[in-house]
Every structure is written in structure tokens, then in C-alpha cells.
């Protein structure tokens, strides 16, 4: 009491008046304010002396690459996270501000690429002057906000939320495939209590059948609705929903419907618990047993960044890697689940077809000797080489060099067909680049169905359409779209109408600020392709789609090998060379017109799968698949990337370029490179951009568009380039999962 | 089969379309999806008080997709969220006993017991003759006359649909109500206590009997 009186002398008059009143509570109050630090008794003065709470913390680095982008420097505000000041643009949420300040806020429902739901409450933090903890993911940061993430209140709030979340959670981690990479597991270790108080019966939920890819254990669901938001927002399918209410709440589909999306596998990644897991991967491995190899995908021309998880010689699963410019953090189902195709139908040994029509395994030496001998028996112009759609740049370079040395220049990459305008890179690349599609306001899709041809490009278009209501016009056969589009017509006639300004869509195009025209590579095979391309160019010209600051004229390629093949100049010399060929070298090419190969031609198939090409082959040379070799690929926008071997090759298989190099030696036309580095320096002389890995090399801008072709547009409508999204190449055709998908999801 | 039956039933009644139009006219064209709840309610009334999957299918396909463009799953979400949409069969008269605290304190449990016993069913079961079913509801906002039950009357389709409150009930009275309903008699909704008028006190009002005096400050001359 005496101490309290003493202290009160130092206080301001208000305080002494309080003291003089006979209120015992104020006395109590005062006696509790006594401390040995004088500043605390004089808050005003202390505040003057120390205007800013100088942080004694070392400067922190933003979390996980959190980037701060100030669209307008005037809009920057300053907030304090645990006393540490950070500058953030207006409109960021408290959670984002904490990320910038390097503080990780636990979360379940928040996902930076989805809308904000704010329903898990795990992200509670304390904000000064707010009476209750606030859900940081949904609360906009305000200037001067003092956010505290590490106080007893915040900790208690998280612990409480965690207890509630675990109330109805089965806690079956030992039999859960998410174990070891589960947000719930990790966050309950970090923020939860060591025991719960819930003694009632836990609820259980009936599992749903979402199709052949996603396994559900719905009792584990914590109702974060990430999957629902992903399906409606990113995948664009209104299939998942939150049914019921209260403790009866569950994720479901409309009356036993399957989830029909080409991106459905991504819900496995975004589900923070083990409610949605991979069906093919179920109970196969624990994630800590797996070796991750960061590589790229080759099942389409997008080149999605992936991580191959392998155990020993086996690819166990494929998951996406973040690449903002290409696939963001999603991958298509084909990319994710094609991996079981890598284990089936593989070619192990070199084989020669005997007189009885059966293959006989032989040694490499014998096989190569036979091939080399035949190659010398035919005329150079009767030699034809076709690279497969999965071929890497190195092997295509080797194939071209080898055939050139034999005197032939009839070499191409299968999906490119007879396309031979490889001089202008802008003529076959996605010049806008995938990420810049987001700036477009009008799309014209010519003979391309991006949803099946390049699911990740389609996801970008959808994102743009959703965000800016960009208009989409489509010319081609009736197709599936997951965004609003206008079906303008089915064939070249519509294209002509637009080019001549007679179509209602022409005005939309010419009024657009950033128009984008995407031409499908499926049109490469048409007889009137030149006329189509000049019509497209006419449209681009009138819509001002090609300007120094914007190139909106794009070609959407179909397969991983195409862009590099055209860069390397793999174009056939004469159109009908396949029909008159005597010696055909198929380097993983299964989708060429095999019927066109003359009966008496000698066919060498070099590849990794016993697919269509093998049926016609006389000699089979086993090669490595993309998961087993180091190879350079260029995606449809011209970005060069490399695969990294994740698992050893099967059997006696070898890398593609090595086989050709060995064959060239046996054939007496030795290729001058023995290492990958050497072959890459050879590539450098042809297409230096293929050496700039992970860089997008835009096509050099050319104002002089191609001259008008005098070819006539035919009236034949455009066709579909890809009939079955799930089976497009030898790997996916060998995959059982992909077969199941085609059977279940594509049936009409 | 069931789906077709429901769909045809749903379609047959041409009047429905007039009603649908009227409902839709309440919403601005860019917020048409807000009509989901009234439309589902209409469907439920048409379908004798509950929404089987087939009725939802029918309403999804016929109404929602075409007229207001809502995906089936979104309709399903709404229908499962609101407890007023019944997803299993109910009787022609669906009796909802309020079980929230004020009613519970005033004897809601006895009322429910009496009802169930009288009808010989369990909660959410339908009597054999299909006339009655008993459910529970949360507070209906007339706690001042607790306990209460609500009777959703689906016996006359959507035109004769009523949703009446019967308040101040006793276990005896509730059985009488059931019997009256069975006979098809119309009984006045509201308090069942003859001594009360609306929510006024038993035996007539005791306060506010004369014109209230204005507050003194209104009399500007006086100050
Ligand atoms: S299934 Fe997974 S992602 Fe979907 S709501 Fe449940 S916990 Fe969230
Ligand atoms: S992350 Fe904020 S409420 Fe779920
Ligand atoms: S508690 Fe029954 S009406 Fe309010």
C-alpha cells in the first residue's frame, strides 16, 4: 500500500484524483501498476521518448518466396508483425502481411490461388485493439495494424481450433496415405495440444466415389472446402459441393456423380488432410521413402514442372512443382497419373524380327550391324527418319545428323507432319507466352481444343476468363469448354468470314486491347494449312495482334518434341517421302501413318514402349523413357527445360542419342560427339536457344508476316487433334490408369 | 421410373410455371440464382412436402439449369443445408415440435412424447396412413407462447399450403389438434389457451390499459 502511494506521487493528476477517491478498486488498480520501470508508469512520456518500437529482431526474409508487388507505390501501408515493421501494398490480408514478414501462420482453408473461405479458423492471430483473435486469412491489413502471432492469446486460439478440428477427425495417421506430408499432422504437432477433451462418439462419413484417380476417406475431411473451391474456380467443373450442415457437413458430388475434370488430381495436393488421396498410389509407399527428382513432364507441349518420386527403380508417383510461368502449381491428370505406363509394355532388349514374323532378342552389336547394313543398301533418298513426339532435342539432333550423313534429309517429328515452315520461330510457337495469356481480353481459338490438347494452357485461359471476363471465340468441331465461349463455326469458312470482317466476332477482335489468336497444331496436317495460316495472319493484322509490345499470334503445339524439332530444322524434304521409303527409322514415332510405309520397307523402331510402331518394325532398339534420361525439351511457348533421370533404365535400354551415335559408328558415318556436352555444343550451332535452360526465348519479332499464299481454303471442317485426352502417346497408352480414365470419364 | 414420375408430375401442373415466373420476377436478372430457395420450396410443396433426388433432378434439369443457370450440385448444397427442406418422406401434415430452450423448459418434450405416442410413430417417421409425421424444429420465434408446434400442411398442394403455428399447447391439446386435422377441420392457429389473446397475458391485459402518456420532455411549454 505504501509503495502504491509513493508511486502515485509520480503519476499524473488524474491518477491522484482517482487515488483520493475512496474507491478501494482504484487503489487496488494502482497498487498493481507499481513496477520498477518508470516508463511503464508514464506511458505518454515513454511513448515520446521511444516513438517507434524499434525491433530488436534481425530482419526476416519473406516466407516461401512470398513476393511483394506494389501495383501502385502510393498504396503501400505499414503494419507491424510481432513488432517488426513491414511495408505491404493495400489490400493484402493480415496473413499475407505475416508471410512477407517471415512469419508462417498455420492455415488449412486458405490457399493463395483460391478464393478466401475463412472457415477453418486455424489462422487466428491477435491484433492490437481487436477484442477477439482475428482470422488473418480473411482480414485485410490496415495501416499501422499491430499483429501479434506469438502471444498467449494467439497460441491458445490455435490450440482451441486444433482441438475442435481433431474432434471428429479419426486420427488414423498410421493407415493414412497423407501421413508424413499432412498439414493437419504437422500443424497439430506444432500448434496443437497433447490431448483433447472430447469423449463423445466421433462422427463418420460415407466415402464418395470421385472416379479412378482420387481416393476419398471422407471421415478425415476437416471441411476446409479447398477442394470445392478448386473444382469450381480452377478446374471449372461444378462437381464438388459441401452438403449438409453442422456436424452432418460433408463433401460430396451431386448424387454419385464422378468428378469429371482433367485437373482433378490436384485436389489430392490441396487437400490439407488425407481425405482426398491418390487412388493409384494408395498404400504403395510412404513419402519419406521416396526420392524426389525435379524434372519436367513430356506428355503434352506445356512442359509442366514435376517432381518424380521414385523408390529404387520404380516411379511411385508424380507431383507438380511450382512454376509461375508454366503450370503454376497444378498439373493435368495425364501428367500425374501416366507413370504406371512407364512400367508396362517396355522394350528391354534389342530385337530382330525373324522370318516367322516373331521377334528374337539379340545383342546390341548384332542389331546395330543389321541396321547399318540395310541402311547402306538403300538409296539415300529412300531413307526416312521420324522422331517421336516424346523425343528430346539431343536425340533429334543426332538423328538428323545421322540421316544427313547417310545422304537423306527426310527427317521430321511426327506431330509436325509435313509442316516445313521452320524458318520463322514465331510461326510455330506460343508467342504470347503462357503466363501473358492472362493479359489478353479476347481469345480466338482456331481448330484447337486447349482443354484436351494442353490442359494447363486451358487453365490459364479459364483463369483469365474468370478474372476479366475475356471473350472466347472458337472455331472447330463441337468441343468441351469449361468457360464461357462462343462457338463461331466449324471450319475454314468461318475463318475466312472473320478475316474479311464479315463476322460479328471481327469487331470484338479489332476492339480488343490484347487479342490472342491460338491456332491448333492439329491443322499442320491439313492440305490447306498455308491458306489457313495466311487467313489467320490476316485476322491478326486487322486486329493488331502483332505489335512491338504484344504478340498475340500463337500456335499451340501438341507434343513435347515438336518445338525443339522445328528449332533444329527437322522438316521433311519432300512430302511423299514416306510412301517411297525403303528404310524407315522410327525414333519413338508411333503416330505416323504406318500404313503409308511400303510393305517392302525396312523399319527400325527405336523407343521405350511396345506401341504401334513396333508392330511394323523389323528391328527394335530399346531406348530410355523421359524419366530415365537427361534430355532437353522446348515447350510450346519456347521455354527450354531439361529432364533429369529419376530411375535407371529398364533392361538393356540406352539413351536415344547414344543408340544413334553407336549406330553411326557401325554404319561408318561416325557422329562427332561422345558426350551430352559435346552434342549440346553441336545443338548450339543450330539452335542456341536450346541451351538456355529454364529460359523462355521469345521468337524474334518479325513485322513482315508471311506472304499471302494462293492456296485455296477447303470447306472441310476442322477436326479434333486429340480424340482421347488420357491416351496420346506410347507412355499413356501403356498406362492402366489412363485406360480406366478413358473408360470411365470419357463415356458419353 | 421415380424420376420420370416426379418430373412428369412436376411438369404437368402448368400452374407451376406461372408460380416460377412470379418467383423469378422478384430477383434481378443477374442474381437469378437467389431464387433457388423459393423454387425448391415450391418443388417441395408440389411434391407433398419432401424433395426426393428425382424431384431435385427434375427441378435442376428443368428449372435451374435452363432458367437460372445453377449447377445441380449448388442446388443440392442448398437443399441439404436448410433443415426445412425435407430429404425424406413426410406426412400430409408435418408436425414440427419446437425443441429450443424456452419451449423445452415449458414442456416441449412432453408434447413430443404425447404426439409420438398418440400417432404410434418415432420421430421423423410417417404414420401408416401417410397423414402425419413428427419432426423437431429450432426456435420459431414465438417463445412468448411456448411451447409451440408448427404444422406444415401439404394436403392441398402448393395452393392450399399452410404453415401454421399452434402455441400454448399441452399434451392433451396437441392430441386434439391432431384429431381435428385428421377430420380435415380448419382450426384457428395461434395460442390454444382460451384465456389469452395473441401473446397477451392470461386473463386480459394488465398494463398499457390507457393511452400512454407522452414523455414529459415533449411538452415544450413545461420546460
Ligand atoms: S476433402 Fe480435403 S480439401 Fe476437401 S474440404 Fe475436406 S479437408 Fe478440405
Ligand atoms: S486459413 Fe484462415 S480461416 Fe482457414
Ligand atoms: S423456443 Fe420455441 S419458439 Fe422459441
TrEMBL record, chain A:
Classification via SUPFAM superfamilies: 2Fe-2S ferredoxin-like, 4Fe-4S ferredoxins, Formate dehydrogenase/DMSO reductase, domains 1-3
Keyword Iron-sulfur included in the entry's annotation: yes
Ranges for domain 2Fe-2S ferredoxin-type: 75-153
Pfam families the UniProt entry points to: Fer2_4 (PF13510), Fer4_NDSU1 (PF22151), Fer4_Nqo3 (PF22117), Molybdopterin (PF00384), NADH-G_4Fe-4S_3 (PF10588), NADH_dhqG_C (PF09326)
Family under the similarity heading: Belongs to the complex I 75 kDa subunit family.
NCBIfam families assigned to the protein according to its UniProt record, in alphabetical order: NuoG
Keyword tags: 4Fe-4S, Iron, Iron-sulfur, Metal-binding, NAD, Translocase
Region annotation Disordered: where it falls in the sequence: 32-66
Protein name, entry field: NADH dehydrogenase [ubiquinone] iron-sulfur protein 1, mitochondrial
TrEMBL record, chain B:
Coiled-coil intervals: none
Stretch list, region Disordered: 185-223
SUPFAM superfamilies reported in the protein's UniProt record: Thioredoxin-like
Pfam family, one: 2Fe-2S_thioredx
Keywords attached to this entry: 2Fe-2S, Iron, Iron-sulfur, Metal-binding
Co-factor(s): [2Fe-2S] cluster
Source taxon at top rank: Eukaryota
Keyword Metal-binding: yes
Annotated family: Belongs to the complex I 24 kDa subunit family.
Protein name: NADH dehydrogenase [ubiquinone] flavoprotein 2, mitochondrial
Record organism: Ziziphus jujuba (Chinese jujube)
Lineage of producing organism: Eukaryota, Viridiplantae, Streptophyta, Embryophyta, Tracheophyta
Gene encoding the protein: LOC107417729
Amino acid at each position: 500500500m505504501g509503495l502504491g502511494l509513493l508511486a502515485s506521487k509520480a503519476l499524473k493528476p488524474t491518477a491522484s484524483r482517482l487515488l483520493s477517491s475512496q474507491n478501494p478498486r482504484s487503489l487496488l488498480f494502482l497498487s498493481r501498476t507499481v513496477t520498477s520501470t518508470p516508463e511503464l508508469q508514464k506511458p505518454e512520456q515513454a511513448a515520446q521518448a521511444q516513438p517507434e518500437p524499434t525491433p530488436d529482431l534481425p530482419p526476416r526474409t519473406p516466407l516461401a518466396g512470398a513476393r511483394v508487388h506494389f501495383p501502385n507505390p502510393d498504396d503501400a501501408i505499414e503494419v507491424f508483425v510481432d513488432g517488426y515493421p513491414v511495408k505491404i501494398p493495400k489490400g493484402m490480408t493480415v496473413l499475407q502481411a505475416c508471410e512477407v514478414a517471415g512469419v508462417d501462420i498455420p492455415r488449412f482453408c486458405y490457399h493463395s490461388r483460391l478464393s478466401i473461405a475463412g472457415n477453418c479458423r486455424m489462422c487466428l492471430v491477435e491484433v492490437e485493439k481487436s477484442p477477439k483473435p482475428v482470422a488473418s486469412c480473411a482480414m485485410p491489413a490496415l495501416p499501422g495494424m499491430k499483429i501479434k502471432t506469438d502471444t498467449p492469446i494467439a497460441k491458445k486460439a490455435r490450440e482451441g481450433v486444433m482441438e475442435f478440428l481433431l474432434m471428429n477427425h479419426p486420427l488414423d495417421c498410421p493407415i493414412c496415405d497423407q501421413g508424413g506430408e499432412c498439414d493437419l499432422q504437422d500443424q497439430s504437432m506444432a500448434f496443437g495440444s497433447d490431448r483433447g477433451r472430447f469423449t463423445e462418439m466421433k462422427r463418420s462419413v460415407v466415402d464418395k466415389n470421385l472416379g479412378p484417380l482420387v481416393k476419398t476417406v471422407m471421415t478425415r475431411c476437416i471441411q476446409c472446402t479447398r477442394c470445392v473451391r478448386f473444382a469450381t474456380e480452377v478446374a471449372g467443373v461444378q462437381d464438388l459441393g459441401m452438403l449438409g450442415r453442422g456436424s452432418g457437413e460433408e463433401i460430396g458430388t451431386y448424387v454419385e456423380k464422378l468428378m469429371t475434370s482433367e485437373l482433378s488430381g490436384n485436389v489430392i495436393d490441396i487437400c490439407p488432410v488425407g481425405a482426398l488421396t491418390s487412388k493409384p498410389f494408395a498404400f504403395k509407399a510412404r513419402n519419406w521413402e521416396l526420392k524426389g527428382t525435379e524434372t519436367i513432364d513430356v506428355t503434352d507441349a506445356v512442359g509442366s514442372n514435376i517432381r518424380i518420386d521414385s523408390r529404387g527403380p520404380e516411379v511411385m508417383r508424380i507431383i507438380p512443382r511450382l512454376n509461375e510461368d508454366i503450370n503454376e502449381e497444378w498439373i493435368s491428370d495425364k501428367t500425374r497419373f501416366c507413370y504406371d505406363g512407364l512400367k508396362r509394355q517396355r522394350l528391354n532388349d534389342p530385337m530382330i524380327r525373324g522370318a516367322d514374323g516373331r521377334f528374337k532378342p539379340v545383342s546390341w552389336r548384332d542389331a546395330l550391324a543389321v541396321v547399318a547394313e540395310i541402311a547402306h543398301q538403300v538409296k539415300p533418298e529412300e531413307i526416312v527418319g521420324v522422331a517421336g513426339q516424346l523425343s528430346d532435342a539431343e536425340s533429334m539432333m543426332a538423328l538428323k545428323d545421322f540421316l544427313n550423313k547417310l545422304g537423306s534429309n527426310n527427317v521430321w517429328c511426327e506431330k509436325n507432319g509435313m509442316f516445313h515452315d521452320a524458318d520463322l520461330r514465331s510461326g510455330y510457337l506460343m508467342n504470347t507466352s503462357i503466363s501473358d495469356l492472362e493479359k489478353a481480353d479476347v481469345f480466338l481459338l482456331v481448330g484447337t481444343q486447349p482443354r484436351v490438347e494442353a490442359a494447363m494452357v486451358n487453365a490459364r485461359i479459364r483463369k483469365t476468363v474468370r478474372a476479366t471476363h475475356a471473350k472466347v471465340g472458337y472455331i472447330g468441331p463441337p468441343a468441351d469448354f469449361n468457360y464461357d465461349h462462343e462457338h463461331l463455326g466449324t471450319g475454314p469458312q468461318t475463318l475466312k468470314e472473320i478475316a474479311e470482317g464479315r463476322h460479328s466476332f471481327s469487331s470484338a477482335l479489332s476492339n480488343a486491347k490484347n487479342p490472342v489468336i491460338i491456332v491448333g497444331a492439329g491443322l499442320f496436317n491439313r492440305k490447306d494449312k498455308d491458306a489457313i495460316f495466311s487467313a489467320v495472319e490476316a485476322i491478326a493484322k486487322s486486329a493488331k495482334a502483332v505489335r512491338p509490345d504484344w504478340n498475340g499470334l500463337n500456335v499451340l503445339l501438341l507434343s513435347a518434341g515438336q518445338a525443339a524439332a522445328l528449332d533444329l530444322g527437322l522438316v521433311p524434304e519432300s512430302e511423299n517421302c514416306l510412301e517411297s521409303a525403303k528404310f524407315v527409322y522410327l525414333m519413338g514415332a508411333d503416330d505416323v501413318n504406318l500404313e503409308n510405309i511400303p510393305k517392302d520397307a525396312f523399319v527400325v523402331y527405336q523407343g521405350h514402349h511396345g506401341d504401334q510402331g513396333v508392330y511394323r518394325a523389323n528391328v527394335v532398339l530399346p531406348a530410355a523413357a523421359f524419366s530415365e534420361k537427361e534430355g532437353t525439351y522446348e515447350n510450346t511457348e519456347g521455354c527450354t527445360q531439361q529432364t533429369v533421370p529419376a530411375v535407371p533404365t529398364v533392361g538393356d535400354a540406352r539413351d536415344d542419342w547414344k543408340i544413334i551415335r553407336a549406330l553411326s559408328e557401325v554404319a561408318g558415318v561416325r557422329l562427332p560427339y561422345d558426350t551430352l556436352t559435346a552434342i549440346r555444343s553441336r545443338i548450339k550451332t543450330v539452335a542456341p536457344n536450346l541451351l538456355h535452360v529454364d529460359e523462355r526465348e521469345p521468337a524474334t519479332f518479325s513485322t513482315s508476316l508471311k506472304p499471302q499464299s494462293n492456296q485455296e481454303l477447303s470447306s472441310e471442317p476442322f477436326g479434333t487433334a486429340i480424340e482421347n485426352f488420357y491416351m496420346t502417346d506410347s507412355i499413356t497408352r501403356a498406362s492402366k490408369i489412363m485406360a480406366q480414365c478413358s473408360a470411365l470419364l470419357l463415356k458419353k | 421410373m421415380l424420376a420420370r414420375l416426379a418430373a412428369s408430375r412436376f411438369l404437368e401442373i402448368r400452374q407451376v410455371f406461372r408460380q416460377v415466373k412470379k418467383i423469378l420476377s422478384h430477383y434481378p436478372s443477374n442474381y437469378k440464382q437467389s431464387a433457388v430457395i423459393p423454387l425448391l420450396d415450391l418443388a417441395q410443396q408440389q411434391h407433398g412436402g419432401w424433395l426426393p433426388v428425382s424431384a431435385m433432378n427434375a427441378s435442376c434439369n428443368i428449372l435451374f439449369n435452363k432458367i437460372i443457370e445453377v449447377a445441380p450440385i449448388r442446388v443440392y448444397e442448398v437443399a441439404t443445408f436448410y433443415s426445412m427442406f425435407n430429404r425424406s418422406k413426410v406426412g400430409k401434415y408435418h408436425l414440427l415440435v419446437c425443441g429450443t430452450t424456452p419451449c423445452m423448459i415449458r414442456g416441449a418434450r412432453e408434447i413430443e412424447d404425447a404426439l409420438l405416442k398418440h400417432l404410434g410413430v418415432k420421430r421423423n417417421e410417417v404414420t401408416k396412413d401417410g397423414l402425419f409425421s413428427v419432426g423437431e424444429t429450432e426456435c420459431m420465434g414465438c417463445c412468448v407462447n411456448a411451447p409451440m408446434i408448427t404444422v406444415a400442411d401439404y394436403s392441398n398442394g402448393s395452393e392450399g399450403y399452410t404453415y401454421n403455428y399452434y402455441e400454448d399447447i399441452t399434451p392433451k391439446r396437441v392430441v386434439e389438434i391432431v384429431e381435428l386435422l385428421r377430420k380435415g377441420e380448419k382450426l384457428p392457429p395461434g395460442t390454444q389457451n382460451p384465456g389469452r389473446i395473441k401473446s397477451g397475458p392470461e386473463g386480459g391485459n394488465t398494463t398499457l390499459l390507457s393511452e400512454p402518456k407522452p414523455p414529459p420532455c415533449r411538452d415544450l411549454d413545461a420546460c
